[in-house]
Design goal:
- The protein has 65 residues and is mostly helical.
- It has two helices and no strands.
- The radius of gyration is 14 Å and the shape is elongated.
- It starts with a helix and ends in an 18-residue tail after the last helix.
- The relative contact order is 0.16.
């Protein structure tokens, strides 16, 4: 996560996200583990009573058959 993401995660965890926040962009870069970012997004969704992001585990090797 970026420093902004870290700071926002701390604010969200402390309940300091403004009620006026109506949209947020969440991005995962190629070298990032997506799970912490997904946890942050799920926390933001929960603040608004929305369901969490669906998660799925895939097995196998990527690429064409």
């Amino acid at each position: 996560m970026t420093r902004t993401g870290d700071a926002f995660g701390v604010a969200a965890g402390a309940g300091a996200v403004p009620r006026s926040l109506s949209a947020a962009a969440v991005r995962v870069h190629r070298d990032q583990d997506p799970l912490p970012v997904t946890d942050l997004a799920d926390g933001l969704l929960a603040l608004r009573g929305r369901p969490p992001i669906a998660r799925a585990a895939l097995e196998g090797a990527p690429g064409l058959p």
